[in-house]
Amino acid sequence: MTYLNLLWHFHQPWYIFPGSNRIERAIITFRTLYNYYPMAKMIQESGTTLTCNFTVPLLLQIKKIDEGEIIDSFQEMLIEDSENDSVKIKIFLEDIPERIKNKNEILRKLMEKFFSQDISKREISDMKIWMHLVCFHPCMVRWFPEIKQLIEKGAGFDSDDRKMLVKLEKEIFSQTLGFYNNLWNSGLIEISITPGYHPIMPLVYDLSIAKKTKTSLQIPDIEFRYPEDVRGHIEMGFETAEKIFGKNVSGIWPAEGSISNEILDMLVDCNIKWIGADEQILHNTDVADKEISSTIYRWKNSFCIFFRNHEFSDRIGFVYHWWDEKSAAEDLFKKIEDFSENNEKILTIILDGENPWEWYRDGGSIFLPEFYGRINSSKKIKPITFSSACNLSMKNISLSNIPPGSWMGLHFDNWIGNPDANRLWQILANARKTVYQQTGKTPLHDGLRNLILMAESSDFFWWMSVSADITTKTKFYSLFQAIISSIYQTIGLKTPQEVMSAYLPATQIGQPDRAITATIDGKLTSFFEWSGASEIKIEQLWTTFQPFDLPVKKLFYGYDMKNLYFRLDISQKVFRAISVEIKEKGVIFSFDIPEGNFVFENIALVDFLEIKIPWEKIGSNDDVAFALKLKTSDTEIRIPPAGFVVFKKKIFDDDWTV
Fold first, then answer.
1. What is the predicted pLDDT for the residue at 505?
2. Comparing C-alpha atoms, which of 530, 596, 515, 532 is closest to residue 569?
3. What is the distance between the alpha carbons of residues 206 and 435, in angstroms, rounded to a whole number?
4. Apex CA 27: angle with CA 257 and CA 22, to 5°?
């Protein structure tokens, strides 16, 4: 028997500026219509038992939008036209994932006309409707005939159509959290929480702990140690969940699965039954028994720690979206049935319940019901909640020491160590120290305390650490900047200039700084062969749960007058084919990887993989956008995972004649 211990994590940060009652983003509406409501409905229809984890900002924003305390500008855009519609449309389009927008032919054509400034008022009106219609998950058409009616109409929408769509969205918002609450009260699901504003709790407790991790980055010497803030986040999580759902939660998925000894000790007094963490952390403890499928681990004989199975979690998140959805569900079901090998085992799967589905061919509308139906009818699989898993009759082991880390490994590199993230930590530390100097040991009043907790959100440091577009980075920096400014204003001080300065990225993906000419032999032919090429650390390209144990660690690219060159530093040779795609031309190079090392004219693999592509295959445009695809036996890894790496081809003065 396999006890399937599945958790969907629902995460959105706080998007509203201090002092405002407006959300100028489309993301909460999109995720509610495309993810949160449909996920609850599919759970209800299938009768599947599992656990759903929410962040506090997500719960509060859905609740406040429903109650009218927050004005959702994306919904408001449907109600009335304004002179700022064009500006709003651009902002809101950025929040709707590219794959969702591009799947819809009508919206895609309207966007082309909009950005070419060849669009009529009637088409802008239709475009606003379609921006909302694509937010509805494919399953929603089956549940709400109003959506199907509007999709079939296609164009020429009138005020009655708008009113109907606004009314429908408001109904869905009013039902979503109650839907989950009913599922919880019925015993079908369990609800858990991520504390407060989604902080990396070990770093807030004591920032210097980052120096004790297995990091390769430059950790700054910043004095920042606030255990009381961690406790504030934890209390906020419990209080918010109780107010919204009417009862206490029993479990926690820490933000990004980040834990340390200090955090676990603090949670002992919080009357919880369990937390989730990543299996990499257990593997690096000194405990002898590290079999997460046949052992219940407890922290100092207190609450349980369930360690996330990487393989199965990543199959759902990164493998199956390439498959036919029904075949993917069948494959996952079979692997889970075989998992126990006729013994009693627990399989803990924790992953994002939002982002994967937009990558599935049918949005997960076939995969999820098929998967749920199969596990419910199986005699070898028993779906359970995390609290129920605490009571399984398995060997119990007490842990008393773990290495600090997160789901990304035994470090916090995606939140500290990068120059942009370090800058934010320094700004936050200065503000927090100033508050302490002004208030001493006097308890902080609720408004100031809330601003401090808000500024400690992991999302600010995440977006300053990962490779993301400048627009996204600027949006999050602007919000961070506003929160820090409000902290200074609240204590009656002028905001320092270092806070008010505009965001200037320190870590964009670098452009090649000189011409290179690589010898395609799979080896470092000379010390200067790849000197001057652009270097990309692959793991930094993922902005959500990344595939475990990526086979490529670094990508280099550079060029001369004749060719564009790629070099991939490989940790393991598990892929069978590689291709290069150019945005404007599609796939221009593909190659089936043979066994062993090889050297050909345009591709070689010995110490690393080298590729040469003549410019005539790429085109004459100065702006080049490329992506690489690596195919394994059952999946495809795309570099970058979404979009393209973009650079501007230029003539270097130093050595075009090499």
1. 62
2. 530
3. 17
4. 110
pLDDT in tens, 183-225: 999 999 999 999 999 999 999 999 999 999 999 899 999 999 9
Contacts by residues 22-25 (CB-CB < 8 Å, ≥ 24 positions apart): 22/70, 22/71, 22/72, 22/73, 23/61, 23/65, 23/70, 23/71, 23/72, 23/73, 23/74, 24/73, 24/88, 24/91, 25/73, 25/74, 25/91, 25/92, 25/95
Residue 351: which of 309, 289, 296 has the closest Cα? 309
Q: Is 125 helix (H, G, I), strand (E, B) or coil?
A: helix
Letter string b/e over residues 397-406, b meaning 16 or more CB atoms within 10 A of that residue's CB: bebeebbbbb
d(CA 226, CA 452): 11
CA distance 631 to 592: 9
**pLDDT, mean of residues 540-546:** 57
pTM: 0.84
Task: Show the CA angle centred on residue 233, arms to residues 232 and 238, nearest 5°.
Answer: 100
Say if residue 57 is preceded by a cis peptide, omega within 30 of 0.
no
Output phi, psi for 295, to 5 deg.
-140, 140
One-letter amino acid of 138: P
Confirm if 134 and 96 have CB atoms less than 8 A apart: yes
Report the alpha-carbon distance of residue 70 to residue 65 in Å, rounded.
5
CB-hemisphere CA count at 13 Å for 510?
16
Per-residue confidence band for 468, with pLDDT thresholds at 50, 70 and 90: confident
What residue spans of 246-286 are helical by DSSP H? 261-267, 279-283
**Token duo for residue 392:** 């399984």
Q: Which residue has the tokens 């990068």?
A: 418
CA-atom Rg of the chain in angstroms:
26
Q: Sorting pLDDT into bands at 50, 70 and 90, what band is 428?
A: very high
pLDDT of residue 7: 98
pLDDT per position as a tens digit, 585-633 = 889 999 999 989 999 999 999 999 999 999 999 988 888 889 898 887 7
**Per-residue H/E/C for 502-536:** CCCCCCCCCCCCCCCCCCCCCCCCCCCCCCCCEEE
Nearest by Cα to 254 from 311, 324, 176, 306: 306
Strands 304-308 and 295-299: antiparallel
In the chain, pLDDT over 70 holds for what percent of residues? 95
Alpha-carbon separation of residue 526 from 65, 515, 529 (angstroms): 61, 15, 5
Percentage, residues of the chain above pLDDT 90: 77
Average pLDDT of the chain, as a whole number: 92
CA-CA distance, 407 to 405, in Å (whole number)?
A: 7
* Token pair listed for 219: 């950790």
Distance between CA atoms of residues 93 and 87, nearest Å: 10
